[in-house]
Amino acid sequence: MSPLIRIIGTPMDLGQALRGVSMGPDALRFADLEKALTRLGYRVEDRGNIHVPIGGTVAEKDRVTEIFRASEACYIEARTAIRDGALPLFLGGDHTISVGSIGGITHDAPCGVVWVDAHADFNTPATSPTGNIHGMGLSILLGEGHEALVHCGRSGPKIRAEDVVLVGIRDLDALERERLSHSGIAVYTMRDIDEMGMGRVAHETIKRLSHLPRIHVSLDMDSLDPPGAPGVGTPVPGGLTYREAHLLMEIIADSHHVGSMDIVEINPIMDTANQTARLAVKLAVSLFGKRILNK
Fold it and tell me: Is residue 62 flagged as an active site residue?
């Protein structure tokens, strides 16, 4: 029987001030995500969207509570998908969805995390200049930050720093930079990619995570250079090219350890003709095995 990919939409926009990313799951569906995965030979089950209140209807004092509720629901879906033998594909929403998605997929066993992003999302309430929770997801998964979110699904950290690789980083806050430098996380900035090449970065990433049974790719679309992916809320110039991002996905796929994926931070309001969602679909199918030539 063909492997099953389970699509789980999480239209979260509570982790930031800018509206629009809650439409990301539907933008990806409109870009024919299910059809593209089916053509690769997968069975695809779309579970629809987890209920998340619209950001503009939630008072600031209630945001953490509502993020917790949505993250708990995402966590349960993630844990269930892994137990069912499915490959969960989470559609955001802002990057806060990783609290539930990565938390849930690691409920029964650890996995490596490749966090592809312009930002490290390694702030805490004490270091963040904005207080936006979508910039704190990785810290929360490592057991730091908002106490309620740290204990989402199960108590304490969900992953270890040595099991995380950041790729494409180019925009860090001052205190976040300091925390990251002492974290034990492997970080490949855009300068590293420029100097080393994406092929070497990707192979080193796989080598670092090779002791783990599965790899989760958390793809923030602002990791790409804005002209190629304009439909994001926090664009940063100088990002990954279309081809660099594809190569990263292809080399990770070659490891045969891909177990799950997030696609986050697509903002259709900022996009042109759904360009960013269509690119995200192409990257997803590369991660799940599409090749230029069959090997």
Answer: no
